[in-house]
Amino acid sequence: DADVTQTPRNRITKTGKRIMLECSQTKGHDRMYWYRQDPGLGLRLIYYSFDVKDINKGEISDGYSVSRQAQAKFSLSLESAIPNQTALYFCATGPGDGGLETQYFGPGTRLLVL
Amino acid sequence: KQEVTQIPAALSVPEGENLVLNCSFTDSAIYNLQWFRQDPGKGLTSLLLIQSSQREQTSGRLNASLDKSSGRSTLYIAASQPGDSATYLCALLNQAGTALIFGKGTTLSVSS
Predict the structure, then answer these.
(1) CA B32 remoteness from chain centre
(2) pLDDT digits (tens, 9 = 90+) for B33-70
(3) Averaged pLDDT for residues B91-103
């Protein structure tokens, strides 16, 4: 089984709809992240959480919200989806190892907002 | 603001060639530098991690170097294979250790 799972893997929705993307991990990491990837723009950080009670905005948090329901679960919500939120969304986890810090990525959710 | 640039954006080589992917960054105050591989429809996989105090790391046919003073890193792939075809991303962990900052990637195609 994958260490970091994302659901759904693909989603088509309409402008104005609320949508939630879910992420679960079995790595036992405290740190979790949400990124979006757009062609020509690379990966950009939306939100990150270093534990259940710690939520931080990333580079592009406008239009998004998150919920850290447990150490293993981190959800990303689009309260009112708009077409420019069409992108590939990745969840990642990290152990918080200082200089050895890396991140482990889920397979991604491809979102299309019509 | 830290900026990460990867050159070239795309590269096509025949099988067996040695190749170099380049990454440059604007702020030398980093925690570490990492190279990731991204395959279509899949997430990112970490290939090599170089801590701020290190100069290079090696794993099999891959060698990554870091020169903080010039703001550069290279990923060297020896004897390329078709299975190496993927997008390679360079990422820096900021000095606060809170976020990875990614380049836009180099898409590599190795033909047999």
Answers:
(1) 12
(2) 999 999 987 889 999 999 989 999 999 999 999 999 99
(3) 87
Q: Please indicate if any CB of chain B lies within 8 Å of the CB of A10.
A: no
Reference A70, options A20, A32, A110, A113; nearest CA is A32
Burial A4-20 (b: 16+ CB within 10 A, else e): bebeeeebebeeeeebe
Residue appearing with tokens 């994958």: A2
Q: Which of A103, A104, A109, A110 to mutate to test the interface with B (most CBs of B within 10 A)?
A: A103
Count of pairs with CB atoms under 8 A, one residue in A, one in B: 60
Tokens 């290190």 belong to B54
Give strand ranges (E) for B1-112.
Answer: 4-7, 10-14, 19-25, 30-38, 44-51, 56-59, 62-67, 72-77, 86-94, 100-102, 106-111
Cβ–Cβ under 8 Å, residues A57 and A6: no
Residue located via tokens 């870091």? B66
